[in-house]
Design brief:
With 258 residues, the protein is of the alpha/beta class. 36% of the residues lie in helices and 15% in strands. The protein has an eight-stranded parallel barrel, surrounded by five helices. A two-stranded antiparallel sheet has the order 8-9. Bound molecules: zinc ion.
Length: 258
């Protein structure tokens, strides 16, 4: 098989969510993402019915070719108790995988605190009543002081297309960001393919991200569009990708972001 060559434009770690390319089918998702130039994968168990089978087959899944793996925890607990979700997720934590969680799913804060720095709490879109703004996220991190932030830049743009909210989250939590979700989030909260407008909106901020922080695409796209999503993102990250930043002066662009 001919793997697409890395373009060399960027050292950023780019990846895809299995749930975006093969809903509910992790094996298929991994196979499709492996054929692309992605180095990172977020294994998705967004519905709690998917979690037991996923954890059971973890030792048999093929993760070769990826240098970063994370697991997206279920977004709600319906068929499983929160306690059993935590027990299943221990198996991912034992592998050192970061665990992405939506803050509105959490009731047992102490249980989630046990994942320490491996936990990455995601900022929410406008359908949710918490975890959307810096103030709401601050309340979450008071209860989970070691947790990182999974910054869904598409969620922040859905709430505020001017990107002021995204800039505020970035400024306040930059040091906590361990993981990004990137896609075009539409008014209904669906994760769409990247378009020129959202790339332009994301560019000033994403061009400042440290190379060790993975950017995970959540665009729901057919297999033949996986590589083009990665290419568009990589092009946008290219230093001095002026077509994306003309007229915009990224905050802190002339300072070290370490
Ligand atoms: Zn999520």
């Amino acid at each position: 098989m001919n793997l697409p060559e890395h373009t060399g434009y960027s050292d950023m770690r780019l990846g895809f969510s299995t749930g975006a390319v093969a809903k509910g089918d992790v094996e298929q998702g991994l196979a499709l993402i492996r054929e692309s130039s992605a180095d990172a994968v977020e294994v998705s168990a967004l519905r709690d019915t998917e979690l037991p089978a996923l954890i059971d087959k973890l030792p048999r899944l093929d993760f070769t070719g990826f240098d970063y793996l994370a697991l997206h925890a279920p977004s709600a607990f319906a068929s499983l108790s929160e306690r059993s979700v935590l027990t299943y997720l221990d198996k991912a934590a034992e592998r050192g995988w970061p665990i992405v969680i939506h803050p509105d799913a959490i009731k047992d804060w102490k249980g989630w605190r046990s994942f320490g720095e491996l936990l990455a709490v995601e900022n929410m879109d406008r359908r949710k009543a918490c975890g959307r703004t810096p103030e709401e996220l601050e309340c979450v991190f008071e209860k989970l002081p070691e947790a990182g932030l999974c910054f869904d830049i598409g969620h922040a743009r859905q709430l505020d297309p001017s990107m002021t909210l995204a800039e505020r989250i970035w400024e306040e939590f930059n040091g906590r960001i361990r993981h990004f979700h990137v896609s075009h989030v539409d008014a209904e909260g669906r994760h769409r393919a990247l378009d020129r407008e959202c790339l332009k909106a994301f560019a000033p901020l994403l061009q400042q991200v440290r190379p060790d922080v993975p950017l995970i695409l959540e665009s729901i796209v057919p297999p033949e569009c996986i590589e083009s999503e990665l290419t568009q993102l990589r092009e946008m990250l290219r230093p001095f990708a002026l077509s994306f930043t003309e007229g915009v002066s990224p905050k802190g662009a002339n300072t070290s972001s370490s």
